[in-house]
Amino acid sequence: MPKLTIDGIEVEVPAGTTVLQAAESIGIEIPRFCYHERLSIAGNCRMCLVEVKPGPPKPAASCALPVADGMEVRTDSEMARKARRGVLEFLLINHPLDCPICDQGGECDLQDQAMTFGTDRSRFCEAKRAVPEKNLGPLIRTAMTRCIQCTRCVRFSTEIAGVPDLGMLGRGEHAEITPYLDGILGSELSGNLVDVCPVGALTNAAYAFSARPWELSHTESIDVLDAVGAAIRVDTRGAQVMRVLPRLNEAVNEEWLGDKSRYAIDGLRVQRLDTPWVRRDGSLKPATWDEAFAVIAQRLKGVAGSKIAALAGDLADAESVVLLKDLMTALGSPHRDCRLDGAALDASVRASYLFNTTIAGIEQADALLLIGTDPRHEATLINARILKRARRGGFPIGRVGLTGRDLTYPVNDLGEDLGLLNEIAEGRHPFAQILKQAKRPMLIIGQGALTRPDGSAVLAAARAIAEAFGLVGEGWNGFNVLHTAAGRVGALDVGFVPAEGGLEAAGILAAARSGALEVLYLLGADSVDLSGLGQTFVIYQGSHGDAGAAVADVILPGAAWTEKDATYVNTEGRVQRTNRAVLPPGEAKEDWRVLRALAGCLGISVGVETLDAVRARLAAVNPVFAKTDVVTPAPWATFGTPGPLAGPPVTPAVASYYMTCPITRASPTMAACVRAFVNGNLKRTGTDG
């Protein structure tokens, strides 16, 4: 490895390391605009100039200069300081200098570096140029006159998002960043352009002119609007969530965040349930907590447990699910389920419903089979990982079901017929040879394939492929189920599935419609058809006035994920926790507190009084809850029911990326995205989704 000296400090780094990276490895920071550690090197801003010996007597761009043995680098010499002052003087010639009214003020790299490395005057007095604004869609506000042509946005769009629609046109002072086809940017990761932009050229349209960064309080949490569990920071002012930003987590989301998770937060302020409601004389009336509990207790008197059922929704946290399970058990009810879409998931075998490879493990795979899944819309950050691996090459990808969809990377469409899975498992399909030759092959099954009538047979066929081609072995498990609901894996880990003799979700709803059930408890369950429930007494607990609240006889207001300390398990089986950033509105309470209080009113002791006690109960039910932010490998076993694979084409698990839960359905920003991207009111440069 080459040895070099940086500011008098000797350092040894691997060959191919750049001077900038070598300096950072010993804690020396070199200013930059165009360089980003996750993007290709452009070397066009020249802010990272340093003095290098031996070499020509001129500054060199450290981001693009590989280290060499014996090299001597000075990052703070007079030559380097003068070069940086000159670079900043040039960059500010055409910059509008509108920091007081710029949304990036206080978080602007150009502002910070001009103060640190720049000068207090300019020698240029020419008229500043103006650049027309670009329409990149409803999520990004542009002020292109501020742009310094660092091309970070161009490289992110192409390399990370996989939608190569941005580029630089023109030369010299006529150069500008623009969409090639003069259309909006069709990527589910477009909000990250705001993060990578070092100036105020691209800003958050929904957050524009709302707050200054020094006014905000920061709370570290996780995202629950899909099953990835991205690390986020919730910024609040008073009782209001102002914005959500990604946090660094190499194992899950790196430093990126999907648009739905970033922009749907305005749905937290709309259609909220902030007081209990009781249906009287055919209409819902506000009530107190005591009144609501009294109505429930009166209705449950004398009702047999076989006539009571519960459904846990997609955003239900593990604490509330385990207490609901205990409550249903105490009432004698075997009817409970968390698989509202009817997915054929086997809760008795944990490996059968996890993303066993782990999200970071995708980068180690060398072949991939997609089965009835569209990861671009079901888990956009996992799709970005797949693209990252595909860009390195040597990663053949085959797809069965949901063919023809643009996933931002090359895919070999094998066909819509899921019967091809049996052919692959038996080695009669050409893609079987690819899996056989691969050292670390993997497959991903989507919920669209598992919610079919033959879902259990699909699961069995996928297991047969995994066992036939070495997807499961020492130190590697390439069998993966991709979930779309944040609360699903945690509920399965708790065992919120039918007890002996109990009904599944579809059976529960059918029994409610027929009158066989008298009481139905909905814990945030909104993603099913709740029509025609007839005389069934419906209790709805949730945060928003969505489908469940519309049919409820009693509504118990709960807290959204930003308003409670709660446990979730992401699609790879990683136990994660949200942290309360704001208080629930009005009379709304954390869900586990509501269930504990209801159980007390019914004369049932659930044995917990504090959050720590609930989490101890979780760990007693399933030891995986004892450790957070850890993926516990699941033992392999037999699962699925072999059978014929036939039927209509796979239906996508996510009909619209932008509206998947009560929060996103209530969000005005997500409604604007549907109008722009899905309904086609605006031209889109990506694919339809």
Automatic annotation (TrEMBL):
<feature type="domain" description="4Fe-4S His(Cys)3-ligated-type">
    <location>
        <begin position="79"/>
        <end position="118"/>
    </location>
</feature>
<feature type="domain" description="2Fe-2S ferredoxin-type">
    <location>
        <begin position="2"/>
        <end position="79"/>
    </location>
</feature>
<keyword id="KW-0408">Iron</keyword>
<dbReference type="GO" id="GO:0016651">
    <property type="term" value="F:oxidoreductase activity, acting on NAD(P)H"/>
</dbReference>
<dbReference type="Pfam" id="PF22151">
    <property type="entry name" value="Fer4_NDSU1"/>
</dbReference>
<dbReference type="InterPro" id="IPR019574">
    <property type="entry name" value="NADH_UbQ_OxRdtase_Gsu_4Fe4S-bd"/>
</dbReference>
<keyword id="KW-1278">Translocase</keyword>
<dbReference type="InterPro" id="IPR036010">
    <property type="entry name" value="2Fe-2S_ferredoxin-like_sf"/>
</dbReference>
<dbReference type="GO" id="GO:0046872">
    <property type="term" value="F:metal ion binding"/>
</dbReference>
<dbReference type="InterPro" id="IPR006963">
    <property type="entry name" value="Mopterin_OxRdtase_4Fe-4S_dom"/>
</dbReference>
<dbReference type="Pfam" id="PF13510">
    <property type="entry name" value="Fer2_4"/>
</dbReference>
<dbReference type="Pfam" id="PF22117">
    <property type="entry name" value="Fer4_Nqo3"/>
</dbReference>
<dbReference type="InterPro" id="IPR010228">
    <property type="entry name" value="NADH_UbQ_OxRdtase_Gsu"/>
</dbReference>
<dbReference type="GO" id="GO:0051537">
    <property type="term" value="F:2 iron, 2 sulfur cluster binding"/>
</dbReference>
<dbReference type="GO" id="GO:0042773">
    <property type="term" value="P:ATP synthesis coupled electron transport"/>
</dbReference>
<dbReference type="Pfam" id="PF10588">
    <property type="entry name" value="NADH-G_4Fe-4S_3"/>
</dbReference>
<keyword id="KW-0520">NAD</keyword>
<dbReference type="InterPro" id="IPR000283">
    <property type="entry name" value="NADH_UbQ_OxRdtase_75kDa_su_CS"/>
</dbReference>
<keyword id="KW-0479">Metal-binding</keyword>
<keyword id="KW-0411">Iron-sulfur</keyword>
<dbReference type="InterPro" id="IPR006656">
    <property type="entry name" value="Mopterin_OxRdtase"/>
</dbReference>
<keyword id="KW-0874">Quinone</keyword>
<dbReference type="InterPro" id="IPR050123">
    <property type="entry name" value="Prok_molybdopt-oxidoreductase"/>
</dbReference>
<dbReference type="Pfam" id="PF00384">
    <property type="entry name" value="Molybdopterin"/>
</dbReference>
<dbReference type="Pfam" id="PF09326">
    <property type="entry name" value="NADH_dhqG_C"/>
</dbReference>
<dbReference type="GO" id="GO:0048038">
    <property type="term" value="F:quinone binding"/>
</dbReference>
<comment type="similarity">
    <text>Belongs to the complex I 75 kDa subunit family.</text>
</comment>
<dbReference type="InterPro" id="IPR015405">
    <property type="entry name" value="NDUFS1-like_C"/>
</dbReference>
<dbReference type="GO" id="GO:0016020">
    <property type="term" value="C:membrane"/>
</dbReference>
<comment type="function">
    <text>NDH-1 shuttles electrons from NADH, via FMN and iron-sulfur (Fe-S) centers, to quinones in the respiratory chain. Couples the redox reaction to proton translocation (for every two electrons transferred, four hydrogen ions are translocated across the cytoplasmic membrane), and thus conserves the redox energy in a proton gradient.</text>
</comment>
<feature type="domain" description="4Fe-4S Mo/W bis-MGD-type">
    <location>
        <begin position="216"/>
        <end position="272"/>
    </location>
</feature>
<keyword id="KW-0001">2Fe-2S</keyword>
<keyword id="KW-0004">4Fe-4S</keyword>
<protein>
    <recommendedName>
        <fullName>NADH-quinone oxidoreductase</fullName>
        <ecNumber>7.1.1.-</ecNumber>
    </recommendedName>
</protein>
<dbReference type="InterPro" id="IPR001041">
    <property type="entry name" value="2Fe-2S_ferredoxin-type"/>
</dbReference>
<dbReference type="GO" id="GO:0008137">
    <property type="term" value="F:NADH dehydrogenase (ubiquinone) activity"/>
</dbReference>
<keyword id="KW-0560">Oxidoreductase</keyword>
<dbReference type="GO" id="GO:0051539">
    <property type="term" value="F:4 iron, 4 sulfur cluster binding"/>
</dbReference>
<dbReference type="InterPro" id="IPR054351">
    <property type="entry name" value="NADH_UbQ_OxRdtase_ferredoxin"/>
</dbReference>
